[in-house]
Amino acid sequence: MIFVENQYDLTPAALPELLERAALAALQNQSAPQDASLTIVLTDNDQLHNLNRDYLGIDSTTDVLSFPSDETDPETNSPYLGDILVSLPRAASQAESAGHDIEAEAQLLVVHGVLHLLGHDHTEAEEKERMWQAQAQILAQLGLGDIQIRES
């Protein structure tokens, strides 16, 4: 189950459904448990800046943050993978710079976030290569094969 929580007023109408589809594609690609759930929060630069500073010690805004969880839903006994927060203003800016729409950028960020929830990382070259390959494969499945994450 994918929960999309919209805290941002200017969200394109189709975006929540597209993000749910992107998250499901990433979960299926990575053979995550079918009954796993996660939450996607659509928010603004200020919230991501504060969370980035408070939890990661980085005093700047970012486009996406993932907070993995190893909890189990007590009612369903299903794994809860965690939360992904996406800054929609940052996604819009990055989409404009890259020459595609915010829907494509936000899907990229959700795929990236899901991969982090599932244990992928990109701090080491070998880990990054595995993560970027998985990300490219999932984006291609979504019809977004020309979209890539930018290095910050």
Structural commentary:
The protein is α/β, with parallel strands linked by helices and 152 residues long. The protein has a single domain (2-141), classed as Collagenase (Catalytic Domain), CATH 3.40.390.30. 47% of the residues lie in helices and 20% in strands. It has helices at 15-29, 45-56, 88-98, 102-117, 125-141; strands at residues 2-6, 37-43, 64-72, 79-87. The chain has a four-stranded mixed sheet with strand order 1-2-4-3, with helices on both faces. α1 (15-29) links the parallel β1 (2-6) and β2 (37-43). The longest helix has 17 residues, at 125-141. The radius of gyration is 15 Å and the shape is globular. The mean pLDDT is 92.
Number of domains: 1
Q: Residue-averaged pLDDT, rounded? A: 92
Q: Could you tell me how far the N terminus lies from the C terminus, measured between alpha carbons in angstroms?
A: 31 Å
- What is the string of helix and strand elements? EHEHEEHHH
| CA gyration radius, whole angstroms | 15 Å
Predict the CATH topology. Collagenase (Catalytic Domain)
Count of beta strands: 4
Could you say what the CATH architecture is?
3-Layer(aba) Sandwich
How are the strands of the biggest sheet laid out side by side? 1-2-4-3
Q: What is the overall shape?
A: globular
CATH class term? Alpha Beta
Largest sheet: 4 strands, mixed
**The CATH homologous superfamily:** Metalloproteases ("zincins"), catalytic domain
Number of helical runs?
5
Q: Estimate what percentage of residues fall within beta strands.
A: 15-25%
Low-pLDDT residue intervals, each spanning 5 or more residues: none
Give the helix level as a range of percent: 40-55%
Question: Which structural class best describes the helix and strand composition?
Answer: alpha/beta
